[in-house]
């Protein structure tokens, strides 16, 4: 997707922007000249980004992160809710903590972020909310009942927000990556990687930059009429869903 050059820098907040997909997204916005704030629990934000230590499971941290971004860059115009965790295990072995920790981070954390972002966007009468879901949220995956539920929930959340906030020129969309070359997939065995590639029509994993390109397109002026959409970046793995 060719993203038009942004003429005026926007205030962007990316959660979990210190590594993997989140880092690539933050770097893509920085390359466009936007003012980017990144939340992280462990540090390591990309050069040029405002680093904010925050845990999105803590409402006070979320509020403080927005306050810091607003003070440095102005009201947040683009929110990318990317931070997420996994706690994979089969259903009968899944503990209450395995379930609740993943739901609280991936789904409830995104709710907290969207609610706080909407306050400023409603005043601006514009804004872009972009949730990073997963092909797993659409296809399901054994051993990932908690993760799949959290990522599927983002679709319902985005579509409800699209209807609720659309009259104020605020869009809400979802990007659903497939398997991406990151630290999380690097731990898979060669046999596992080959099995996964065999299911992907394009026959390869995505690069983080390819996911970032979809995100920056959704934030671009050219996509102002796109809302409530789920954009798959999965090499065709989840087509039909």
Structural summary, described in words:
The protein is an alpha/beta fold and 241 residues long. It contains 8 helices and 7 strands. It has one domain: 3-Layer(aba) Sandwich (Rossmann fold), CATH 3.40.50. Helices cover 43% and strands 15% of the residues. Strands 3-2-1-4-5-6-7 form a 7-stranded parallel β-sheet, with helices on both faces. Helix 3 links the parallel strand 4 and strand 5. The longest helix has 29 residues. The two termini are 21 Å apart.
Radius of gyration: 17 Å
Query: Number of DSSP strands?
Result: 7
CATH topology: Rossmann fold
Outline type: globular
What proportion of the residues form beta strands (DSSP E)? 15-25%
User: How many domain units?
Assistant: 1
Poorly predicted ranges: none
Q: How many strands, which pairing sense, and closed or not: the largest β-sheet?
A: 7 strands, parallel
Number of helices: 8
The overall pLDDT, averaged over residues, is 94
CATH C-level: Alpha Beta
What topology, given as strand order, has the largest sheet?
A: 3-2-1-4-5-6-7
Provide the CATH architecture. 3-Layer(aba) Sandwich
- Which class of secondary structure composition applies to the elements? alpha/beta
CATH superfamily: NAD(P)-binding Rossmann-like Domain
Task: Give the CA-CA distance, first to last residue.
Answer: 21 Å
Q: Write the H/E string, N to C.
A: EHEEHEHEHHEHHHE
Helicity range of the residues?
A: 40-55%
């Amino acid at each position: 997707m060719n993203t038009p050059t942004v003429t005026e820098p926007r205030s962007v907040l990316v959660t979990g922007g210190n590594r993997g997909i989140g880092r690539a997204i933050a770097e893509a916005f920085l390359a466009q000249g936007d003012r980017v704030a990144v939340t992280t629990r462990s540090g390591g934000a990309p050069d040029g980004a405002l680093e904010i230590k925050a845990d999105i499971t803590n409402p006070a941290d979320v509020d403080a992160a927005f306050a810091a971004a607003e003070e440095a860059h102005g009201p947040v115009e683009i929110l990318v809710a990317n931070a997420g965790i996994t706690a994979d295990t089969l259903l009968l072995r899944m503990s209450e903590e395995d379930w609740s920790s993943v739901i609280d981070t991936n789904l409830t954390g995104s709710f907290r972020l969207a609610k706080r972002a909407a306050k400023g966007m409603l005043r601006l009468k514009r804004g872009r909310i972009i949730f990073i879901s997963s092909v797993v949220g659409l296809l399901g995956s054994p051993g990932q009942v908690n993760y799949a539920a959290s990522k599927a929930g983002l679709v319902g959340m985005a579509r409800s927000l699209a209807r609720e906030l659309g009259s104020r020129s605020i869009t809400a969309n979802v990007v659903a990556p497939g398997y991406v070359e990151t630290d999380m997939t690097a731990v898979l065995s060669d046999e596992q990687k080959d099995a996964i590639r065999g299911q992907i029509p394009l026959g390869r994993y995505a690069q983080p930059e390819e996911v970032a390109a979809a995100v920056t397109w959704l934030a671009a002026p050219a996509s102002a009429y796109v809302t409530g959409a789920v954009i798959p970046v999965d090499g065709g793995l989840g087509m039909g869903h």
